[in-house]
Automatic annotation (TrEMBL):
The keyword Calcium does not apply. Substrate binds at residues 31-35, 81, 157, 212, 328. Residues 26-35, 145-161 form the Uroporphyrinogen decarboxylase (URO-D) domain. InterPro entries: UROD/MetE-like_sf, Uroporphyrinogen_deCO2ase_HemE, Uroporphyrinogen_deCOase. This is Uroporphyrinogen decarboxylase. Signal peptide: none annotated. Homodimer. The keyword Lyase applies. Keywords: Cytoplasm, Decarboxylase, Lyase, Porphyrin biosynthesis. Its EC number is 4.1.1.37. Belongs to the uroporphyrinogen decarboxylase family.
């Protein structure tokens, strides 16, 4: 046990973001509310569409709490989606069953000229209401996470109108029409700041910025479209709430993680499973808390491979400030018994 380790934490997850190391790392999973849970699928059927689920405070509260009840995680993440920002900007956003999101593409300067600058946050009232209800229902030691997508990642869906394997349409637009593209980014930056502040007001305690597609960008473009806009969001939130705790997740950033941490000022960084442990310890965990990074596929595989992979993650990172998580979201086909196996193994660990 180190001198910074407390034995009776008020909130294990927040303690780590506030500079402590926990001998048993706090634990949650990205995309922990979702289709791998039968109780989620049941509510999802009742709700109808995916956005109907997000925008009904009863349903959104219920599915946010489901994984906490089942697994006793240290953090709850509010049930919503990164694409509610384009939705509140008046873009058409639909989720087709089994196909992922569909938006009206925004890939010419002419279309960008018609883009609304200010989101209608009234359209997201249900998210704020669900945050208040979840906070009231949660054990005080469980931390409540609000989130948004990073501007680059949100823009990739707005430009292409859908997910693509390497987000080529947004990369192409950024090369061909950098001014129009930077208008999209600016609109997302401004509205994400407002959105995150409203989530804090509605009782979110930590914010996570998901940059799922950071890893497809060349270094200079990563700096311009991922790092700089994220830095503006962090600064914009802290201008109003100076001690706001923020986790960044620039998936696939690899060797650019130290630069991302330095420039953006995030309190913690979520790392994917391809990260190199020695590099992360020396260059990243020495400055901020680290979150991650079990491969979601080994959680599907289970068995001895899962035990080994969990032990590796713990051996790699648990001596420093660490939050146990996956390297990306949990997949729908994951057996619940494997999640239980992971929870038990992490809970039994003392580093
Ligand atoms: O449990 C949680 O983590 C909270 C809720 C949450 C969702 N989406 C719910 C969701 C969070 C944090 C997100 C973030 C999100 N959404 C990201 C960034 C993180 C990541 O996983 O990369 C991205 C890129 C999106 C956009 C998005 N939403 C896609 C590409 C899809 C379809 C693919 C998929 O995973 O299903 C969604 C739909 C979505 N968002 C679902 C859920 C539970 C599935 C919808 C359903 O029930 O049919």
């Amino acid at each position: 046990m180190t001198s910074s380790d407390t034995t009776s934490p008020a909130k294990p997850f927040l303690d780590v973001l506030n500079g402590q190391r926990r001998s048993t790392p706090p634990l949650w999973m990205m995309r922990q509310a979702g289709r791998y849970l039968p109780e989620y699928r049941k509510v999802r059927e009742q709700a109808g569409g995916f956005l109907d689920l997000c925008f009904n405070p009863d349903f959104a509260t219920e599915v946010t709490l489901q994984p906490i009840r089942r697994f006793g995680f240290d953090a709850a993440i509010i049930f919503s989606d990164i694409l509610v920002i384009p939705y509140a900007l008046g873009r058409s956003v639909r989720f087709e069953a089994g196909e992922g999101p569909r938006l009206d593409p925004l890939d010419t300067p002419e279309q960008v000229a018609t883009l609304s600058r200010a989101a209608d946050f009234g359209k997201l009232d249900a998210v704020f209401e669900a945050l208040r209800r979840v906070r009231a229902a949660l054990d005080p030691k469980v931390t409540l996470i609000g989130f948004c997508g990073a501007p680059w990642t949100v823009a990739t869906y707005m430009v292409a109108g859908r997910g693509t394997p390497d987000q080529g349409p947004a990369r192409m637009m950024a090369y061909r029409h950098p001014e129009a593209f930077s208008t999209i980014i600016d609109v997302i930056v401004e509205n994400s700041i407002q959105y995150l502040l409203r989530q804090l007001e509605a009782s979110a305690e930590v914010l996570q910025i998901f940059d799922t597609w950071a890893g497809v960008l060349p270094a200079a473009e990563f700096q311009r479209w991922s790092v700089e806009p994220t830095k503006r969001i962090v600064a914009g939130v802290r201008a109003k709430v100076p001690n706001a705790k923020i986790i960044g997740f620039p998936r696939g950033a690899g060797a650019q993680l130290p630069g991302y941490v330095e420039a953006t000022g995030v309190d913690a960084v979520s790392i994917d499973w391809a990260a190199e442990p020695g590099f992360i310890r020396d260059r990243v965990q020495s400055r901020v808390a680290v979150q991650g990074n079990l491969d979601p596929l080994v959680l599907i595989a289970g068995g001895a491979a899962l035990d080994r992979a969990i032990d590796d993650v713990l051996a790699n990172y648990a001596q420093g400030r660490f939050l146990f998580n996956l390297g990306h979201g949990i997949q729908p086909e994951t057996p619940i018994a494997h999640v239980e196996q992971m929870v038990k193994r992490v809970r039994d660990f003392r580093g």
